[in-house]
User: Fold this.
Amino acid sequence: AQSVAQPEDQVNVAEGNPLTVKCTYSVSGNPYLFWYVQYPNRGLQFLLKYITGDNLVKGSYGFEAEFNKSQTSFHLKKPSALVSDSALYFCAVRDTEGSQGNLIFGKGTKLSVKP
Amino acid sequence: DTGVSQNPRHKITKRGQNVTFRCDPISEHNRLYWYRQTLGQGPEFLTYFQNEAQLEKSRLLSDRFSAERPKGSFSTLEIQRTEQGDSAMYLCASSSGRAGDLAGANVLTFGAGSRLTVL
Assistant:
């Protein structure tokens, strides 16, 4: 079955330190991978995606993610965390068994950045 | 364009009542999606429209759930005979899509959601 796993419910980081939010996936065919962020009372916002090409993808707000096919992972990273990065982060993969590639989301990881 | 708009933002209803949510997508987007999100979980896909055609509805949770997009613009999601288990956040998203686009490669723009509480 197709799935996305975010093994950490919460990640705590000090401001200025690097952050990593982990994501692994299981999907048939070529994976299309996405990261979205959700702030309180706001809709999910797109951060970045991997479709093909360079394994290191750069996105909004200084975030980047690395696609690793052998480890079926797509971890989200940022070199220097900001307090304003505190939010709920979702990894998603295209559903290759549904029509038009609907997204399958992980359960989310709460990122807390402390000053 | 103000993005994807959803109304109402919060609906409280008694069990057994019908509820309807409305979604106004980004005007130039031809694809519209409905997802459901419960506490501590990621969004779960419900249904999808390309213009006015509902191309995927097998993931609707039961026959109490139905969605329409009559003119290919706004969409409504109706839940009949609500149950307490229907309490959740209902999310709408839209995207552009053209023939030849890689299916699933387009970015979804989400609305803020409509929260349903069934008493």
